[in-house]
Amino acid sequence: MTEYICRLGTPSGEIVTRVVEAAAAADARSRLESEGYRVFAVSSPQEGLSAVLSLGGGNKKGRVKQSDFLLFNQQLSALLRAGIPVLQAIDLLKTRSGSATLRVVLADVEEKIRNGIPLSEAFEAQGMFPRIYTASLLAGERSGALDDVLARFVVYLKRSVAVSRKLRGALAYPAFLLLAAMLMVTFLTVYIVPRMSDLFKSLSANRTLPTVTLVVLWFSNGLVNNIFWLLPLAIIVGLGLYVWLRTTSGRLIVHKLFLRIPIGGKLVRNMATAQMSRSMSTLLSGGITVPDSWDISSQAINNLELRRRSQGVLPMIREGRGFTDALEQANWVPELALDMIGIGEGSGSLREMLDEVALFYDAEAEVRLEQFTTLLEPLILLFMAGIVVTILLAIYLPIIQMISAGPIGSHR
User: Fold this and answer.
1) Which helix (H) or strand (E) holds 32?
2) Is the dihedral of CA 109, 115, 116, 121 positive or negative?
3) For residue range 89-143, what is the model confidence (pLDDT) as tens digits?
4) Whole-model pTM?
5) What are the sequence ranges of the domains in the chain?
6) N-terminal to C-terminal alpha carbon distance within the chain
7) CATH class of the domain whose range is 66-159
8) Dihedrals φ, ψ of 332, to 5°?
9) How far is CA 183 from CA 13, 186, 223, 288, 334, in A?
10) Which alpha helices (DSSP H) does 82-130 contain, by range?
């Protein structure tokens, strides 16, 4: 006999999950149907609950914008709270969604639900939604409180979107400064300096040019004369870096470097702590166990190095060690966060304490982000000013020398 995990609809309308022993999946289905259950799905032993909680295959439908995804879940939660059935709610939102990609996804989800597949599996099959979302849907289906679980996930998603917007907004101005600096240096080096080279040649016939002028001329002439092979080389190197950064090894190296930046490293840790705490709190509130909540939350950590350090936590939890003790072995969670989580675990209020940790480190990350951008902006300005001043000195020093030496030459 083999165990099968079955998704069932009870005569009272609840959705439950049961483990049934049978010789084959068809036998398990027929036995449950004879008992009065409506069988939605029978998972093979190889799939099990871990397969239900894992992310689906590759996404072939494109990407859904975060804002569209947030709006959809807000509307779905409101419709479910109003008592509208899931299938009817999906159909309504499918026709009203402003995202073409999301409309295609919802049409496929609707079709799967009509065929008896649960909502969580229908979304999981799309292969484009985070595990925390499909796991939250699964928890809502189990508990019969899908609207409440969705409402908590909407709160989680709102906070995540707000953090992302703050991060992009804070880095937009430094990125603009860096781009402006590069364009200005390129313009002066490629356009202005070469047009002054004839003047410099006539001046060098009578006296030696300043060192800074010789260096700038050498760099500018080398760049202009070799632009036809330097430009393709730069494009090839840029594409190579882009491809490399999309690999796991490339991203891991870059993420390790981020952690070594004095202020940036603490910022990354604080943001990861807030994200992990918020994810776990959302999953725990939906009835997911601590090991499964940590498994899903740790995989959602954006920094690959921190995710790698977190891999040893789950086996220790399953061996019976306390969550706080296991988390301490990851060696990246701030000590204050560990103390707060330990207090919550000891008092039986882990979910509530994780919420507090997320709020605290959201605020801490915001302060660190402001410090980082405050330090970064002057550095970019100083770099830009240094390059521009060097080029201007290279242009005007020979002219100043010629003007200052002119009266002496005429007097003689």
Assistant:
1) helix 25-34
2) negative
3) 898 888 888 888 888 889 989 888 888 888 888 888 887 888 788 888 888 887 7
4) 0.66
5) 2-46, 66-159, 167-412
6) 113
7) mainly alpha
8) -145, -15
9) 65, 5, 15, 52, 41
10) 86-96, 100-114, 119-124
